[in-house]
Amino acid sequence: MSKQRAVLEVIALDVEDAVAAQAGGADRLELVTDMTADGLTPSAGTVAGIRGAVDLPLRVMLRLSDGFAAGDVDRLVGAACAMREAGAEEFVLGFLTADGGVDLDAVERVVGALDGCRWTFHRAIDRAADRDALRKQLDGLPGLDTYLTAGSPADVDDGLPTLLAESGRRGEPGYEQQLLVGGGLRLEHVPALLEAGIDGFHIGGAARPDGWDGPVSAEAVARWRRTVDGVGTGD
């Protein structure tokens, strides 16, 4: 049986990004707005427009303000419902308390509104006081299938030992979910991560040669596609 290929997820801000990412070989999109705040919930219109333009799976960010506090949970639940009405079927979320613990009440309320949809717990895990405790607390929540992480609050350079260690625990309670590596991820990181069995990669600025003021480049995504597939960097 052939090995299932690794997932390449690309951040998209609009339809142009989404179309380019699909052309370059992305497997999935993360939909956000306002990267100056590290990515917030996009408009329902943006989600509907992208849904109509590409046939890739879309994960929609549920985050109303910069930082990892949940804020107004009623508004988050409302946003989740609006996104579902716009055609969203997969999501990204993650909330912490002031002391770095998982805000389980907020997470459970939002996940309840998703009604079984699949979702990613995002890089809030990299700011958690205790990563292992967070995973154990979230274990068993419906729909949770992915952790987006750099392995550290900084980037993959700092977090690589943690990523490799957590990959080695996959299948243990709290570690069944896919590791989706992102946050300062570079092409040269990929071979070692693949060798360790990591099969999820997430890029944002790396897909944009002109930075966040420019669009996703299909050619840049294709270069990542080749590297994630283990067929060279394309440089």
UniProtKB/TrEMBL annotation:
Segments passing through the bilayer: none
Gene3D superfamilies from the UniProt entry: Copper homeostasis (CutC) domain
InterPro entries per the UniProt record, alphabetical: CutC-like, CutC-like_dom_sf
Top-level taxon of the source organism: Bacteria
SUPFAM superfamilies assigned: CutC-like
Pfam family, one: CutC
PANTHER family, A to Z: COPPER HOMEOSTASIS PROTEIN CUTC, COPPER HOMEOSTASIS PROTEIN CUTC HOMOLOG
Similarity annotation: Belongs to the CutC family.
Protein name as annotated: Copper homeostasis protein cutC homolog
Organism of provenance: Streptomyces viridosporus T7A
